[in-house]
Amino acid sequence: MTETRGGVTATTDRVGARPLPAGGGKGFRGGQRNPWRRLSLFYREIVAELRKVIWPTRHELVTYTSVVVVFVSVMVAIVSGLDYLFTKGVLAVFG
Amino acid sequence: MLTAFARAFRTPDLRKKLLFVLAIIGLFRLGSVVPSPGVSYTAIQSCLNQSKDSSVYGLVNLFSGGALLQLSVFALGIMPYITSSIIIQLLIVVIPRLERLKEEGQSGQAKLTQYTRYLTIALAILQSTGIVALARGVPSRLFPQCNQAILPSTSLFRVATLVVTMTAGTAVIMWLGELITDRGIGNGMSVLIFTSIASRLPSEGGRILQSTSGFVFALVCLLGLVIVTAVVYVEQAQRRIPVQYAKRMVGRRMYGGTSTYIPLKVNQAGVIPVIFASSLLYLPNLLSQMWTSNQGFTNFVSRNLTKGDHPLYLVSYFLLIIFFTYFYVAITFNPVEVSDNMKKYGGFVPGFRPGRQTAEYLDFILSRITLPGALFLGLIAVLPNALLSLTGGNQFPFGGTTVLILVGVGLETVKQIESQLMLRNYEGFLR
């Protein structure tokens, strides 16, 4: 990742680094003008990144889903139980 | 798996945290049931029974756990707090003074929290005034079909008491939420929203079962399960960026030399964008309550922006979610900061120079990987509603937003409990 400028290796990060097209061919967008081509490039980059994503395995998916379903059902049960009690209580006091 | 839940309860300080959260949830629900002073409880109950269709205030009522239509002490729910924290976050970007406060660190953050609280109170006053105005009159606008007086007396003193009570209730909710964040498990704001939605779930499910056949109910449940799986799938997907740490000699010891990775989630923002977008979409509704003199505006809002199945609502909801996903990722993950930290500890991404280039690389990946995540969030939130409105039924509460929030918050909380268990060398539930 050395960018040479006039035969001198650029060693600083900040000074004068901006005018250069960023990145040495690592997929950073250069001076692309046509919006459609930029859009399609962006799309291809998204697909390329999504390929590198590590998706959960089937086993992981099943475990996480069941844990979440159990957790949510337990919470719904607790909350509706509380609600039932409180509604009865309030009805007894105000109703 | 269930033994892990039991084990979570057997660990002393984890049990303490869990019970603390449960106690706060209990308090929160109690306040959502206790009626405010000056409200006729019996009249409200009969009105609620008469008007089966609560979809007019659907989402707001859902987010307050049904407390809004009951005019209880916690009628406004956590909504004002959420709205004000969005507004403050947005203002940080716009107003330089707030931005400086944010960069100041701890003390600036405390100041910002203070502003958020003040704004919450202001919003709560506005909103409670709006609600009280809606509840006034004998066929009140809150329940147009009901002929009973919800507020038996509308003297200035009574109305002021109501407004003050509801505002104070909002302040208490805000405090409860912050207590959960500080001393319990999970993010207080999300946990309270979760509770509100969970409390609506049984009754809304029962309503669907009553109004339609069992077949449709099973179908809705199946759809819910599919959404749950999809949300978990995307929530777990990571883009791992390899990080190599340089070996260092400190004295006679060797340090570092390990390789790890930065996990970038496809959906880095979680469910926060959904919560933000839906509470922002409520703002026009609130405005129209305040500003009743402008009939055209009020009609426009109630026709297009209150019900969850109108095309305009769906489109703006979708766009807002995408905006807030990018916005929230930008707030919470700062590539420059991360790359600076890495540089400080001698880490680098292979192939990129530490510092600016690494930050640019991180930003490059983040901005590309967030778009699919944002589109996914938007689609999940919007599609079920669109489908349901096509079939004619308005099963709003079982839309994507509800499931998304329930699953997102559930997953987040379970993972936090899990990491607490791991801290104590137990195997968690997620093997």
Q: What is the CA–CA distance across the termini of chain B?
A: 9 Å
The global form of chain B is globular
Q: Rough shape of chain A?
A: elongated
Low-confidence stretches of chain B are: none
SS class of chain A: mainly alpha
**Strand percentage of chain A:** under 5%
Helix content of chain B: 55-70%
- Tell me the series of helices and strands of chain A, N- to C-terminal: EEHH
Proportion of residues in extended strands of chain B: 5-15%
Class of secondary structure makeup of chain B: mainly alpha
Mean pLDDT of chain A: 74
Strand order of the largest sheet of chain A: 1-2
Provide the gyration radius of chain A in Å. Answer: 29 Å
Residue stretches of chain A low in confidence (pLDDT < 50, at least 5 long) are 1-27
Give helix and strand order of chain B, one letter per element, not per position.
Answer: HHHHHHHHHHHEEEEHHHHHEHH
Measured by residues with Cβ under 8 Å of the partner chain's Cβ, the largest interface is: A-B, 45 and 54 residues
How confident overall, as mean pLDDT of chain B? 82
Rg of chain B computed from alpha carbons, rounded to a whole number of angstroms:
24 Å
